[in-house]
Specification:
The strands form three sheets. Strands 3-2-1-4-5-6 form a six-stranded parallel β-sheet, sandwiched between helices. A five-stranded mixed β-sheet has the order 8-9-7-10-11. Helices cover 36% and strands 28% of the residues. The protein starts with 5 loop residues before the first strand and ends in a 5-residue tail after the last helix. The protein is α/β, with parallel strands linked by helices and 269 residues long. The chain folds into two domains: 117 residues, Rossmann fold (3-Layer(aba) Sandwich), CATH 3.40.50.720; 116 residues, Dihydrodipicolinate Reductase, domain 2 (2-Layer Sandwich), CATH 3.30.360.
């Protein structure tokens, strides 16, 4: 870009991408989002955005020559667009980590990154302590459990509506218990934290997951408990929801900013 800022592009231009762009614009720093890969219908809805270029094909995005691409769309976007970008040598940050519950897609992304000499970064999302979990895995983990809790309204529009009556929840109701693979498949827009924990720990099949609707709370809560040869730990976060989208946490949006800054920082912390 003419002002020296990094050429950043997003895949998708929903609440998360808009929040990210607005935050960078407020800070006036080295980053700006100036292009988005979207469907033509979504481009029409976003036409009022100033100084944004809306593209409809991954090849057009490659020709735009972004410094980094950030996926903020869906599992389908990871499957359809990200391998193409990686093979073209364009490093990408993905938010839809739940897509990696598919082992074939994980293998394809890894091969694409190797072929393109690019890098795929997973935004940590609304959870913390993944560095501890990855370190503990080296010694051997015997169990990892994740419990995700949100207000009933935050579960609307998901499979939770078929598993319980959200309108009648008055306290804490656990509506799903299973493994991380099942959770990622049934709750693709809500289970990115689940996938992040599974990838850092003992995998999708062995990571136990409980999902809870809590009518008494307004925060999105995430708890990870792990045991193994290293000892044991419990991490619990209570996150404010993102104002533009209560189904996700503000911390998830902040984690994307942090992943972008870490990508360009000469010292990785």
């Amino acid at each position: 870009m003419v002002d020296g800022r990094k050429r950043l592009a997003v895949i998708g231009f929903g609440a998360m991408a808009r929040n990210l762009r607005a935050s960078f614009r407020r800070s006036g720093g080295a980053f700006d989002i100036a292009a988005a890969l979207v469907s033509e219908a979504n481009a029409l809805n976003a036409a009022a955005e100033d100084q944004m270029q809306f593209l409809h094909d991954p090849l057009a995005l490659i020709a735009w020559k972004p410094s980094l691409v950030i996926e903020c769309a869906s599992h389908g976007a990871v499957r359809d667009a990200v391998p193409v970008l990686l093979r073209a040598g364009i490093s990408t940050v993905i938010v839809s980590i739940g897509s990696l519950a598919d082992p074939l897609l994980r293998s394809e992304l890894e091969a694409a990154a190797v072929a393109g000499n690019s890098r795929l970064t997973l935004a940590s999302g609304a959870i913390g302590g993944l560095d501890v979990l990855r370190a503990a895995r080296l010694a051997g983990l015997s169990s990892v459990q994740y419990v995700g809790t949100k207000p009933p309204a935050a579960w609307r529009g998901t499979a939770a509506e078929t598993l319980c009556d959200l309108s009648s929840v008055s306290g804490r109701t656990t509506f799903f218990e299973g493994n991380a693979e099942e959770a990622s498949r049934l709750f693709p827009k809500n289970a990115n934290v689940t996938a992040a924990v599974a990838l850092a720990g003992i995998g999708f099949q062995q990571t136990r997951v409980s999902l809870v609707a809590d009518a008494q709370g307004h925060l999105n809560s995430h708890q990870v408990t792990a045991c193994g040869a290293f000892g044991d730990f419990k991490i619990c976060l209570h996150n404010e929801p993102l104002a533009e989208n209560p189904k996700t946490s503000r911390l998830a949006a902040l984690s994307i900013e942090q992943a972008i800054m870490r990508h360009f920082d000469p010292i990785e912390m």
